[in-house]
Design a protein that fits this description.
Shape: globular
Number of domains: 1
Number of helices: 9
Order of helices and strands: HEHEHEHEHEHHEHH
Bound molecules: NADP nicotinamide-adenine-dinucleotide phosphate
CATH topology: Rossmann fold
Number of strands: 6
Strand order of the largest sheet: 3-4-5-6
Length: about 240
């Protein structure tokens, strides 16, 4: 995404918790601006905001992309802090980033917030209960935010990807999935950028569109299809 935005002559800022990963990104994309920041930590967000506000007051797009995904068997004992970290990263992070950066975005003649949810916001995959709940919550938050900002120049987008070929997908599913038809990152990014450019506020690439339309109409059917492409991992639930 950063590469494609740079090619379109944007100034691109990216964040990560890891200075090493940011350096690797910078080596590959020297024009990029990098910031170590943790979206799960309000103090870290405040420091990021102060830095960005002073160095890049023209910021006009915020993409809330950070996310983590863990499988969880709700019948087994689990560490509460691990469970809440997933909710904090996937839901509170976008909420805290948005409320913190809103004042800056409001100074621009036109601005956008892009919340990256998931097709699993529309129907949960039971093996990932907190992840799916966090994305459903982000979907709901995005609807409210869009309504609250209706009288401003800020457009609120939701990008709900289907399965995409990234480390998150491989890490979360490991051996628990027989075959996931994963979209290439380049294809997802092309859909996202063209969706934003054309003002499509709810961008649901590939099978995500089908999930969004069919899940409320036929949750049993869609759930059965999802179960067909996944199988339980006895070790992790
Ligand atoms: N891949 C899929 O199939 C899929 C499908 C639907 C939705 N999504 C969503 O797409 C988004 C991107 O996921 P991905 O597939 O690209 O996963 P990924 O390769 O694992 O990347 C996740 C990114 O989130 C960042 N991140 C995680 N926790 C963070 C935190 N507390 N503070 C700052 N950054 C944090 C990571 O940065 P550092 O680790 O460097 O800090 C990393 O850049 C996520 O919101 C995910 O839920 C993915």
């Amino acid at each position: 995404m950063a590469r494609q935005l740079l090619l379109r002559e944007n100034t691109v800022l990216i964040t990560s918790r890891s200075a090493e990963r940011l350096q690797a990104a910078k080596n590959s994309l020297p024009e990029i601006h990098t910031f170590v920041s943790d979206t799960g930590d309000p103090d870290s967000i405040s420091r990021l905001f102060a830095d960005v506000e002073s160095r890049f007051p023209g910021l006009d797009v915020l993409i809330n992309n950070a996310g983590i995904m863990h499988s969880l068997n709700l019948q087994e004992p689990a560490d509460p802090s691990l469970m809440s970290r997933e909710m904090t990263t996937n839901f509170c992070g976008p909420l805290w980033m948005t409320t913190r950066f809103l004042s800056l975005l409001k100074t621009r003649p036109e601005a956008a917030i892009v919340n990256v949810s998931s097709c699993l916001a529309f129907l949960p995959l039971a093996g990932f209960p907190v992840y799916c709940a966090s994305k459903a919550a982000l979907h709901s938050l995005t609807l409210s935010l869009r309504k609250q900002l209706a009288d401003t120049k800020i457009s609120v987008f939701e990008l709900a990807p289907p399965a995409v070929d990234t480390p998150l997908l491989h890490g979360a599913f490991q051996s628990s999935v027989q075959s996931i038809p994963a979209m290439a990152v380049e294809k997802l990014v092309a859909s996202a950028i063209s969706g934003i450019q054309s003002g499509n506020l709810e961008i649901c690439p590939g099978q995500s569109k089908l999930m969004k339309v069919l899940a409320p109409l036929a949750p049993g059917l869609v759930g059965a299809w999802m179960n067909k492409i996944t199988r339980p991992n006895p070790g992790r639930g």
